[in-house]
Structure formats: C-alpha cells, structure tokens
Design brief:
binds zinc ion, 302 residues, single chain, mainly alpha, three-stranded mixed sheet, 3 strands, 2 domains, Alpha-Beta Plaits, Alpha-lytic protease prodomain-like, 8 helices
Length: 302
C-alpha cells in the first residue's frame, strides 16, 4: 500500500515540473492551471499516506473497532480538493473567454505536457489494479485523481494546440470548461463513496449473496437465521446476525453450532468479521422487536 503512495508522490513532483516547464515555454494559462491541479495531487497523496498510517493501527482501548474508517476522511478531502481545482479551472476558463490572448512555442509545451500525462496515466493504471486487489478506497481515490488529471491535460493540450492552427482564441477556454465539468463529476463520486462508508452502507450485493449462500448450508427445521446486517469500514467487512435454535438445546450444543457458522463465514469471505447472536426459537432481542413484557416462567439468571 505505502509503496503505491510513495511512487505516486514521486511521480506527482515530476509531473508538476514538466507542466510548469510547459507553462514557462508557452505562457499558456491552461498549462499553468494544469500544473496547479497536479500540485493538489501532491497534497492529497501526502494526506493519504498519513491516513493509511492511522488506518493501519491495530485496535486500542479508545478505538476497539480499529481505525479503518480514517480512509474515508482522506478520500472525502481528496474529492473536495479535486472539486475546488475544477472550479479554479472553470473560473480561469471564463476569464480567458472574456479576455482572449495567444500562446507561443506550442509544440514544445505540448510535448512536455504529453510526457507528464503519460507518466500520470501509467501510474494511475498501476494504482487502480492495486486498489482493487487491496480493496483500498484511498488508493482508488488517488488513482482516480491522477486519471482526472490526465483528462485535464488532454483538454488543455487539444485546446492550446488548436489555437495557433485555427486562430480561435475562444476554443481553449471552452475545452477547459468541459474538462472542469468532468472533474466535478469525479469529485462528486469520491465524496459520495466516503459518505457511504461513514454512514455504514451495507456490503455490495455479491458479498450479501455469499453470506446467504453460507447460511443456507446450516438452515434446517431447528436452525433459522434473521436480522442479517452488513457494513464495511475501509478494507474490513462486518456482518451481524441472529441464529435461532430450539430452546431445549444445551448452551454447549448451540455454541458449537454457532462456531461452525462463524468459521464458515470467515473462510468464505476474506477479512469478514462475523458477530452471531444465539437466540431460542420465538425469542428476539429488544433491539430487534422482542417484547419486554413477554410472559414466561420467571428467569433465574444466577
Ligand atoms: Zn432474530
């Protein structure tokens, strides 16, 4: 994980240097705003490294469920940074539409910018494959950010290249505006995913189907499951459920069956934390609709 983030940090510095070079050669404000967008990458990647270090800490007395949700702060912040960078590009585009001006030494500037984008695209693809393997939203956010950066550069390169060919000074800001709208969409998706994580959205349907498949193997006239809840926190996945068994079973027999279910769930779904509450048939916990005044023999819990 850290290897990916360190490489992205080094690549970002190289990309900024190339894009600033393109700006100095051409005097194009498009290339300058492109370089500023890459600067946001460096800030975001540094913050992501910090968050991954926090997320990787083992559970402690103050945080008994671990620190994995720290990842969501990083991806939410990154979404906001991308959004602001896009608004900056849009503002610059409007400014240039109102006060058009030409650019110089375009082929050399384009060459530098293309090289920078090739570096970004290569690093982004490598990081996306790593993100899927590690199930990391931080890594995915970083990779999507880099891809957004490639789109920005492509728009700027096309716009700046066509200006001297056509003499259309308005073309550059219009292309910049289209790219900015695309980036705002990327930013929105990142923020939405972070909100999902912080709001404990359930696991994807494929994971829930896998849980149900495992439980199916244990269902019988005696054993019934209900109140299945799932959530994720960073790379960790959680399921909690009720396991209803006949009231006359001994606690030892019920616990043995419960253990088999827990083991099957964690073997089938990597990284799953299963919390299984044992209940007799016909009884529910208060949380799940059980009646506090349910009639029955007086309980002797001593
Ligand atoms: Zn139940």
């Amino acid at each position: 994980m850290r290897r990916y983030l360190y490489v992205s940090l080094v690549a970002a510095f190289a990309v900024i240097a190339l894009k600033l070079g393109a700006w100095r050669l051409t005097g194009s404000v498009g290339f300058l705003s492109d370089a500023l967008e890459s600067l946001v990458n460096v800030v975001a990647a540094g913050f992501a490294l910090l968050m991954v270090a926090i997320a990787g800490r083992p559970p402690d007395a103050d945080h008994p469920y671990g620190h994995t949700k720290a990842e969501y702060f990083s991806s939410a912040l990154e979404g906001l940074l991308i959004g602001f960078a896009a608004l900056g590009i849009a503002a610059e585009a409007v400014h240039r539409l109102l006060a058009p001006h030409g650019v110089r030494a375009v082929p050399a500037g384009v060459a530098l910018s293309v090289l920078a984008s090739l570096i970004n695209a290569g690093v982004a693809r490598w990081m996306l494959s790593g993100a899927h393997r590690l199930r990391s939203i931080v890594l995915e956010a970083d990779a999507r950010h880099l891809l957004a950066d490639v789109w920005t550069s492509a728009g700027v390169i096309v716009g700046v290249s066509l200006v001297p060919l056509t003499g259309w000074l308005w073309l550059d800001p219009v292309v910049g505006m289209v790219v900015a709208v695309h980036i705002v969409g990327e930013a929105w998706r990142l923020v939405a995913r972070s909100v999902d994580g912080l709001m404990d959205r359930s696991l994807p349907a494929s994971d829930i189907a896998e849980v149900d498949h495992v439980l199916q193997g244990f269902r019988s006239d005696d054993v019934r499951f209900d109140h299945v809840r799932t959530r994720r926190a960073g790379t960790r996945r959680f399921v909690s459920l009720h396991m209803h068994m006949p009231a006359h079973w001994s606690l030892g027999r019920a616990a043995h069956c419960r253990l088999r279910v827990e083991r099957a769930l964690t073997e089938h779904i990597a990284g799953l934390v299963a919390t299984i509450e044992m209940l007799p048939q016909g009884e529910e916990s208060l949380l799940d609709g059980g009646r506090p005044d349910k009639p029955g023999p007086p309980a002797d819990c001593g």
